[in-house]
Amino acid sequence: MSALLNIFVLGTIWGGIYSLIAVGFTLILGVAGIVNLAHGAFYMIGAYLAYTFMTILKINVVISAILAVAGVALIGMLLDQIGIRPFRENHAYVVVLTLIFGQIFCRQVIYAIYGAHGKSVQNFINGEIELAGMYISYQKLLIILAAIIFVSLLYLFIKKTKIGKSIAAVEQNKVASILVGIRYERVYMMTMGVSAGLAALAGVFASPIIEAEPGMSSFPLFKAFAIVVIGGLGSMGGAVIVSLLLAYSETAVSYLISANYSDMVYLTVLVLILIVRPTGILNKGRIK
Amino acid sequence: MNTYHDLYGLKILYRRIIGLAIFSAIVLLAPLVVKEGYFLEVLFLCNYYVVLACTWDLLSGYTGKVSFGHNLFVGAAGYTGAVLNLNLGWGPWLTLPMGGLVAGLLGLLVGAVTLRLKGPYFGGVTFCIGMLLYKFLCISTKTLGGEEGLPGVSPLMSSPLGNYYFSAIFMLIAVYFLYFLTRSSFGLILTSIGANEQASEGSGINTTFYKVAAFTMSGAIAGIASAMYTHIMQHATPAMAHETLGAVVLMMAVVGGMGTILGPIIGGYVLTIINEAFRFMGDMRLLIYSGLTFGMFLFAPKGVFDIILRVYRRITQGRKQPT
Questions:
Q1: Between chains, do B284 and A35 touch, taking CB under 8 Å as contact?
Q2: How far is CA B243 from the centre of its chain?
Q3: How far is B139 from chain A (nearest CA, A)?
Q4: ipTM attached to this prediction
Q5: Is A198 within 8 Å of A24 (Cβ atoms)?
Q6: 3 state DSSP class of B37
Q7: Which residue of B has its CA nearest to A232?
Q8: Cβ separation of A100 and B254 shorter than 8 Å?
Q9: Do A267 and B132 lie within an 8 Å CB cutoff?
Q10: CA-based nearest distance A125→chain B, Å
Q11: Which of B120, B244, B294 sits opposite A101 (nearest CB)?
Q12: Does B296 touch chain A (CB under 8 A)?
């Protein structure tokens, strides 16, 4: 029973973090049609900025989280405007550019500044509650809560606000959105900002439960990609559902068999999905 | 635009053969100038990376289907060579083709699953599978040595000079093969897929077949190179399957110029030498290296080869813009 509860709690936490990462990844993929391989780097920079502000500079938790997210969103927008904008239509260039920027350059910058050793951030809030004989820290509950709140906020942002609606419009039909007067370059920039901010948010919330190290940008990237392909390219609901499923199955595998094999799960599923149903499990995926 | 005569004319063919002959002469005569073991090893590394960058270029440079999975080929073939050599005692003449075979089969499998789909599937899956192979190599401590890798592979040649010549001749053969392959109708089809895949399909070309064929070939050649590397280093490590290697190969091809075969040769030499030359900088080396590449890509996305070509045309044709 306690194993089951453990799997449920840990799975929900990681499901929340994965969905924050994957929703941003699928957003920029759906809107601009670009595979942003710097997404893992945004997650990493988010965690490192949280470490810088909270542990080194000892700023208030909320303010440092906002600063970290805003900083990464800014980096994302700059990358979009300076790097991606000139070859927006050439997907091969965009993929290579974001790879070199995120997986190579950012990682080396982080390595040069912070060194190779893992850095951990103290808990945002202390204390724990007892649930069916098992102690769950408030920190972990906070992560779950934050994931629910921010994914819902993103949904409301896309559906209700003017910028969000223009993002959805460009996603649906770029030419028509130009005709009704939407400045699509600005929309791309905003989308990149939102997507990078969400990845940074995941990094900030993950920073107390993992150690920040320069190699950490790879795993969220692989998983985000797997989640987005399994859930359907550009489908946000699919991304959230698959994030949770993936996190539960991974936790179950690492509890029941071995942590070493938890990564084999998503890859096996990924390859199967690609062979059987390339549009994703919800059949909502669109290929640009 | 290239007309038929630009691509297939006899005059162009002679010019190409002369150019490649000069390049081969430089490569083969280099040991007369460079005699120290360390520098020979750097030149050997250049040969190895040139093969990897050129094979990457065959599919990804020409069709624009960017693969991040070159580390997959390198890791799989390197370990195949090491395991066959250590467990069955096979010599390099058998393990090299076997490495190529395994990598080629991997290319066929991965390509057949992902290259028929449009969109970012191919890049992402190659990325994931390469990382998975790395993790698999790291956790299989009993059979494949875990993070230590497999040491004690038998050496390829007895002397560094022999190793250099083996790698140089292999590199030249691979480069000639890829160069003339991409200047044949096969290369023309790959270029047309890169320019407009739907139009190529509309002209009756089975684009999936050509993409998978190119990926398989690039995997096989990279696999042979990787088995050769394992024999020369006498050690197979999981680092061969790490994504960093895939990214380095990609950077070489991109800095040199994608879709040219000649560009990756330049990129392979330049980046390997820069990498070794900055060794005195310690930890900052990779930062400078990656910063240079990123800046280079940002400001000259077509690579060094394009710059050289433009300067050459400016000199030979005056101020007239090439058409």
A1: no
A2: 15
A3: 7
A4: 0.81
A5: yes
A6: helix
A7: B121
A8: yes
A9: yes
A10: 34
A11: B294
A12: no
Residue type (1 letter), A245: L
> Could you give the CA distance from residue A101 to residue A108 in angstroms, rounded to a whole number?
10
Burial profile B105-132: b = 16 or more Cβ within 10 angstroms, e = fewer = ebbbebbbbbbbbebbbbbbbbbbbbbb
Say if the Cβ atoms of B243 and A103 lie within 8 Å. Answer: yes
Residue at token pair 């039909």: A173
| Separation in Å, CA of B283 to nearest CA in chain A | 7
Task: Kindly determine whether residue A287 and residue B118, on different chains, have CB atoms separated by under 8 Å.
Answer: yes
Tens of each residue's pLDDT in chain B, 323 residues = 455 555 566 777 788 888 888 999 988 888 888 777 788 888 999 999 999 999 999 988 888 888 888 999 999 999 999 999 998 888 888 999 999 999 999 999 989 888 887 777 888 788 888 888 888 888 888 888 888 888 888 888 888 888 899 999 999 999 999 998 998 899 999 999 988 888 999 999 999 999 999 999 999 999 999 999 999 988 888 888 888 888 889 888 888 888 888 889 999 998 888 888 887 777 777 788 888 888 888 888 888 888 888 888 888 876 655 54
CB A226 within 8 A of CB A267: yes
B61 Cβ contact partners less than 8 Å away, ≥ 6 residues apart:
B253, B258, B259, B260, B261, B263, B264
